[in-house]
């Protein structure tokens, strides 16, 4: 690449896109990389403020920004993503399906720590819709050394840096609503409709529903029954606090669940429970939901549910990391998942 006066550049080949901005009319590339400059282009270039331009000068040790962006795309793109054509040295990735977007943070950060390379993505574990933009990437200079991009590839490793976990379809969901007052009909069950609404957002319904009093053995029996019926997920509502008559955690444990966590550093949702039951080669997530899920706009359940639907097994360490950003700001207008309450 070399710089020269625009008036002297007729016949030369542009080595990068040139954007023309006319307020209220256009902001787009007026001349594309590879364009052979003609005499009639010179006045237009000058009107764009291009008294000097950069034209292609063959150098086997360098890569053009578009070619370098293509390397970054190869390092990032995974299944269920589509890529844009390079434009002004930038490539964007878009979701092909609904799912949960994830980044291999350790390797990703190492790549972004390198000079002249930049990749920006949506937040970690963000639920996304098909057609939603996931990431954009580019190198900073117009040309970059090939050796530098080889270093980038070495740091990134062989596996894609990004991942989109699609939601599993046709999952069977069982719900156990606990509480003697609900079981005996003293009050209306207002918790289950909330769960049904949240499941509906992912195309799911409640396949089996059981009511249980506050006797732990009865709740345990219902959980086991739902698992035997082939439920892919069991959700228990109520009885999750530390009061003596709140016995749902014990019932989940006695039903054979290996408890990942009882309690989470999120507000709302501190008394959340997650466990997994092994049954006939399957691993069934069982969740205990505290009362806040019934009345709060967003809770830990909204963070966990999308990932459970993808089939991901969530670890205790991940949940314990929720504390950073785990305080919902209770905005008057909720913008979740475009907010800080996101992991």
Automatic annotation (TrEMBL):
Q: What is its EC number?
A: 2.10.1.1
Reactions catalysed: adenylyl-molybdopterin + molybdate = Mo-molybdopterin + AMP + H(+)
- Keyword Coiled coil assigned: no
Per the record, its GO cellular-component terms are:
cytosol
Q: Which InterPro entries match?
A: MoaB/Mog-like_dom_sf (IPR036425), MoaB/Mog_dom (IPR001453), MoeA-like (IPR038987)
Task: Give the superkingdom in one word.
Answer: Bacteria
Q: Domain MoaB/Mog spans what residues?
A: 174-310
Q: What is the lineage of its organism?
A: Bacteria, Bacillati, Bacillota, Negativicutes, Selenomonadales
User: Known CDD domains for this protein?
Assistant: MoeA_like
Q: Which family does it belong to?
A: Belongs to the MoeA family.
Q: In which pathway does it act?
A: Cofactor biosynthesis; molybdopterin biosynthesis
For this entry, the protein name equals Molybdopterin molybdenumtransferase
This protein's cofactor list reads: Mg(2+)
| Keyword line | Magnesium, Metal-binding, Molybdenum, Molybdenum cofactor biosynthesis, Transferase
Q: What does this protein do?
A: Catalyzes the insertion of molybdate into adenylated molybdopterin with the concomitant release of AMP.
Q: Name one GO molecular function term.
A: metal ion binding
Q: Name one GO biological process term.
A: Mo-molybdopterin cofactor biosynthetic process
Look at the named UniProt entry and state the broad enzyme category this protein falls under: transferase
């Amino acid at each position: 690449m070399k710089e020269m006066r625009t008036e002297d550049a007729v016949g030369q080949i542009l080595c990068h896109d040139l954007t023309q901005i006319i307020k209220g009319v256009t902001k787009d590339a007026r001349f594309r990389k590879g364009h052979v400059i003609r005499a009639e282009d010179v006045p237009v270039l000058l009107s764009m403020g291009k008294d000097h331009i950069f034209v292609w000068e063959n150098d086997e040790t360098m890569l053009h920004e578009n070619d370098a962006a293509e390397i970054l795309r190869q390092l990032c793109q995974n299944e269920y993503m589509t890529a844009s054509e390079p434009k002004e040295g930038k490539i964007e990735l878009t979701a092909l399906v609904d799912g949960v977007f994830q980044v291999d943070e350790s390797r990703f950060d190492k790549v972004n720590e390198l000079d002249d390379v930049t990749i920006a993505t949506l937040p970690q574990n963000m639920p996304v819709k098909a057609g939603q933009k996931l990431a954009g990437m580019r190198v900073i200079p117009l040309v970059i050394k090939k050796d530098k991009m080889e270093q980038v590839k070495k740091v990134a490793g062989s596996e894609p840096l990004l991942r989109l976990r699609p939601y599993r379809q046709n999952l069977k969901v069982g719900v156990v609503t606990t509480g003697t007052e609900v079981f005996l009909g003293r009050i209306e069950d207002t918790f289950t409709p909330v769960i049904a609404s949240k499941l509906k957002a992912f195309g799911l319904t409640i396949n089996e529903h059981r009511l249980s009093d506050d006797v732990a053995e009865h709740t345990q029996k219902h959980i086991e029954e739902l698992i035997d019926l082939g439920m892919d997920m069991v959700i228990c509502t109520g009885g999750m606090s530390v009061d003596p008559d709140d016995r749902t955690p014990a019932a989940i444990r006695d039903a054979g669940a290996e408890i990942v966590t009882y309690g989470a550093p999120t507000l709302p949702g501190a008394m959340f429970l997650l466990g997994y039951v092994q049954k006939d080669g399957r691993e069934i997530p069982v969740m205990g939901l505290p009362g806040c899920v019934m009345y709060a706009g967003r809770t830990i359940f909204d963070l966990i549910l999308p990932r459970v639907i993808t089939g991901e097994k969530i670890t205790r360490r991940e949940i314990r990391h929720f504390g950073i950003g785990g305080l919902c700001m209770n905005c008057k207008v909720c913008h979740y998942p475009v907010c800080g309450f996101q992991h």
